Amino acid sequence: MATDIGIALASTEAHFAQILSLQRRYHVAVLPDDVQSREGFLFVEHTLPLLARMAAASPQAIALHDGRVVGYCLSLPPALQADVPVLAPMFEQFGKCEWRGRPVSEQRYVVGGQVCVDRAYRGQGLLARLYRRLGTEVAAACELCVTEIATRNGVSVRAHGKMGFEAIGTYSHGDEDWVIVAWELGRA
């Protein structure tokens, strides 16, 4: 039940290790295609040192049940973009995407996601609670939360749309088509 699940900020090595454990279980490389289409999937792989650097620079929201991480919403400030080279094409697109008539790259933003909720805890509104916590934490410093989603990840596209994210661009890179979405933090 969602009332038993607290939303906090990741701050310990144990939190980071549990985030990585969830990430490994739901990564695109390990999930069969039918599970990916039904449940969604994750692309980026992080490391313990990277998560620690991210948490030092920006809040990392986690859902906790009985002291265990059962969901997370990571955030990446633009200043750390070089630490995640696989996201370079996304950051390049931010100069081409506009929000309210201005390029995203010229606005105060944080990259939201990767976001993941353990299978056993889905359907309880945790994605929204995680993003709202992130939004509350960064709203004073950022106008937008921006992320990209593989278009074939319909579960994530729909969940972000329900959360209030709006599509602001699309592009192709490698074998994937991507949609870039933004959420106005003042609406958090």
List keywords for this structure.
9 strands, single chain, 7-stranded mixed sheet, two-stranded antiparallel ribbon, alpha+beta, 188 residues, Aminopeptidase
How would you summarize the topology of this molecule?
Blueprint: E1 6-9, H1 13-25, H2 33-39, H3 48-57, E2 61-65, E3 68-76, H4 88-93, E4 98-99, E5 102-103, E6 109-117, H5 126-138, E7 144-150, H6 154-163, E8 166-173, E9 176-184
Parallel strand pairs: 6-7
Antiparallel strand pairs: 1-2, 2-3, 3-6, 4-5, 7-9, 8-9
CATH topology: Aminopeptidase
Number of helices: 6
Largest sheet: 7 strands, mixed
Series of secondary-structure elements, N-terminal to C-terminal: EHHHEEHEEEHEHEE
CATH superfamily: Gcn5-related N-acetyltransferase (GNAT)
Catalogue the unreliable spans.
none
The total number of structural domains is 1
Task: Please give a structural write-up.
The chain has helices spanning 13-25, 33-39, 48-57, 88-93, 126-138, 154-163; strands at residues 6-9, 61-65, 68-76, 98-99, 102-103, 109-117, 144-150, 166-173, 176-184. With 188 residues, it is an alpha+beta fold. It has a single domain (2-187), classed as 3-Layer(aba) Sandwich (Aminopeptidase).
